[in-house]
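Action item from last meeting closed. Structure (697 res):
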């Protein structure tokens, strides 16, 4: 129960309990003693009266003088608390009486004659004192012998004196004593309670203040302090809590300062480029949105510049990324030095910058942009013992009420920048809505972005399609072509004809081909491990850009040097146009790969006007007849003649012929009649996900 009491209650309880116990004990002893004293006093006085009356009544009883006895009793009855008094003869006869009495029955029963007899009743006491007479036999001959006289004396019982004493006054006195004692006890307890409360208050007030302060500190009010009111232990506790609060407040202030600094850094990092200190693309797009809103609502005119460095890749490739990063930092400082008060400069990524010119006409914007371009052109970048000159191409678009979204403005400025590069670099081009080049480029640039995202997010996939013999005969070598697919954001499949043109135009094909080669080599290893009894030839398409790329060729050579057993399982398909445009490079590549057992196919044969002229100079194993001749072979005699001619010449040169885009049984039957060796197309085998290849025999 004490656990639920507060400190003040416990202090009061600890003070009051001993006081109450001691007070009750003392009061009990006092009352008991008082009651005993009153009762003893009554009894003693009653016995004394009875002793005095007994000898005084001897004469009256002995002489039979009733008047003397009555007078004696009346005088005795005057004493307080005496209800009645009477004298009895030795035979029990009542000789005289004054007042009440309850002794008749007792006298009749007989009483001892040698002592005072007491009988107790609830409200009174009855005493009987014997009346005796002593007779002495005197020796006349020896009167001086006192001892002899005493020895010859005898005591005779004459009667009794009865005394009835009331206890009412004594009982009332006892009750008064008890009442007074209780009043004194309660008064003492009240005083003790008050004193304990005062003492408890003095003790608990600073403790409660401490508790309140600690609670406030716990709620976060670290500026709360305790008033210094005590000394000794309490004072030490107060000082300790104040010191703790001050220390916590200091720590909180320091922590809050660190949090504010960290928050500021995070806010800064979220809106700024870590390399250059310029705002990043996200922050720039937000500011562009606000600027566009002001143009739409208030009719203000602004300008957006998309700036791309010329020859940045040369510096990055020749000197490393550290040099490229340092170049970007220096150019950012150079560009910031030419900003006006309301201009916004941002790094969008790589070597691409954006400039937002608020409240600026397109004519004024051209002057500002040309100042930036000229500054960059005059700039010289020194790295080690080498000095580089760089340029900057700028695409510009006006921001007005006719402008679309921020994304469309950035896309238009990007497209204009591309035109500036395409027209000789280090130029400024202003976007025009009817610019055909820009329109084409904008569409291609969208694909460029999507291709890069697909590479970064691993959304490229390989499918496989079987190449089968025309006659349907079984063979020990399984021949399949691996087909590249790109997965869209919604999970749908995008065919290569949609994104390959943009990839070829913007030099992304080496990256795509590198990914395909790496996946193909992993597939070869997995297939060999699961289907050792059956040989498989994997056909992979290579672009002209990859064939010309020294880095790509080195990568492929390194892979085959590390896994030479995979070479006989690879067949590289090269398009006719790529082969004709890079004949020497292609033949060199073919020779290098043949050392590892790789085979080659000339893809889309017949699409070039000089196909037969260059065919004899290419060291290929297969000729894949262009599907443009195969699709309508059953209906177009010219297409049939072309297929027959290609097949005949290919056989004369010892090459294997493959017809692509075989979509029907009629086409397959006609190709079988012509004698074409292999066929490929949805009419023969529909492409399947790569995961199913190792599961099929």
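Sequence:
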């Amino acid at each position: 129960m004490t656990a639920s009491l507060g400190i003040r209650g416990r202090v009061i309880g600890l003070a009051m309990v001993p006081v109450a116990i001691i007070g009750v004990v003392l009061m009990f002893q006092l009352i008991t003693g008082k009651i005993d004293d009153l009762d003893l006093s009554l009894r003693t006085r009653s016995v004394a009266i009875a002793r005095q009356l007994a000898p005084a009544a001897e004469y009256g009883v002995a002489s039979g003088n009733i008047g003397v006895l009555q007078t004696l009793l009346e005088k005795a009855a005057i004493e307080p608390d005496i209800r009645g008094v009477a004298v009895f003869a030795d035979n029990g006869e009542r000789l005289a009486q004054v007042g009440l009495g309850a002794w008749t029955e007792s006298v009749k029963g007989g009483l001892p004659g040698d002592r005072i007899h007491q009988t107790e009743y609830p409200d009174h006491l009855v005493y009987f004192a014997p009346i005796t007479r002593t007779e002495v036999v005197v020796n006349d001959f020896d009167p001086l012998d006192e001892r002899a006289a005493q020895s010859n004396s005898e005591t005779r019982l004459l009667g009794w004196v009865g005394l009835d004493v009331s206890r009412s006054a004594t009982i009332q006195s006892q009750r008064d004593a008890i009442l007074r004692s209780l009043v004194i006890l309660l008064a003492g307890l009240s005083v003790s309670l008050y004193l304990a409360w005062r003492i408890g208050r003095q003790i608990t007030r600073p403790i409660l203040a401490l508790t309140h302060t600690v609670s406030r500190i716990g709620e976060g009010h670290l500026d709360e302090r305790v008033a210094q009111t005590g000394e000794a232990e309490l004072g030490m506790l107060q000082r300790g809590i104040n010191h703790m609060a001050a220390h916590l407040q200091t720590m909180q202030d320091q922590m809050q300062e660190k949090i504010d600094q960290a928050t500021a850094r995070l806010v800064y990092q979220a809106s700024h480029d870590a390399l250059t200190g310029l705002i990043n693309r996200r922050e720039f797009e937000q500011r562009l949105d606000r600027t566009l809103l002001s143009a739409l609502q208030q009719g203000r005119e602004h300008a957006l510049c998309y700036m791309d460095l010329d020859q940045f890749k040369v510096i990055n490739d020749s000197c490393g990324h550290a040099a490229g990063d340092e170049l970007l930092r220096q150019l950012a400082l150079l560009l910031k030095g030419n900003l006006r008060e309301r201009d916004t400069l941002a790094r969008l990524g790589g070597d691409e910058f954006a400039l937002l010119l608020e409240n600026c006409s397109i004519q004024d914007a051209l002057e500002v942009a040309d100042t930036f371009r000229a500054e960059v052109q005059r700039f010289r970048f020194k790295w080690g013992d080498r000095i580089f000159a760089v340029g900057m191409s700028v695409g510009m678009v006006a921001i007005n009420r006719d402008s679309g979204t921020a994304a469309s403005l950035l896309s238009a400025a990007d497209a204009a920048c591309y035109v500036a590069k395409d027209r000789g670099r280090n130029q400024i081009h202003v976007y025009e809505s009817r610019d055909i080049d820009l329109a084409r480029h904008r569409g291609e640039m969208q694909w460029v972005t999507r291709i890069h995202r697909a590479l970064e997010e691993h959304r490229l996939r390989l499918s496989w399609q079987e190449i089968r013999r025309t006659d349907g005969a079984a063979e020990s070598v399984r021949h399949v072509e691996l087909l590249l697919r790109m997965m869209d954001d919604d999970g749908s499949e995008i065919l290569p004809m949609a994104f390959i043109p943009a990839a070829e135009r913007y030099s992304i094909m080496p990256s795509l081909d590198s990914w395909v080669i790496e996946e193909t080599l992993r597939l070869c290893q997995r297939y060999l491990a699961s289907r050792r009894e059956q040989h498989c030839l994997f056909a992979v398409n290579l672009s002209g850009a990859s064939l010309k790329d020294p880095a790509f060729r080195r990568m492929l050579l390194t892979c085959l040097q590390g896994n030479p057993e995979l070479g006989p399982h690879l067949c590289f398909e090269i398009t006719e146009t790529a082969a004709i445009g890079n004949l020497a490079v292609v033949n060199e590549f073919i020779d290098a790969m043949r050392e590892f057992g790789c085979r080659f196919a000339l893809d889309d044969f017949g699409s070039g006007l000089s196909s037969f002229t260059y065919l004899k100079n290419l060291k290929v194993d297969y000729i894949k007849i262009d599907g443009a001749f195969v699709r309508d072979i059953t209906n177009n005699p010219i297409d049939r003649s072309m297929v027959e001619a290609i097949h005949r010449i290919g056989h004369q040169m010892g090459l294997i012929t493959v017809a692509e885009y075989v979509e029907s049984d009629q086409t397959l039957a006609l190709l079988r009649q012509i004698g074409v060796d292999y066929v490929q197309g949805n009419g023969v085998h529909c492409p399947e996900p790569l995961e199913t290849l190792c599961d099929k025999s």
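Note appended to the action item: The chain is about 55% helix and 20% strand.
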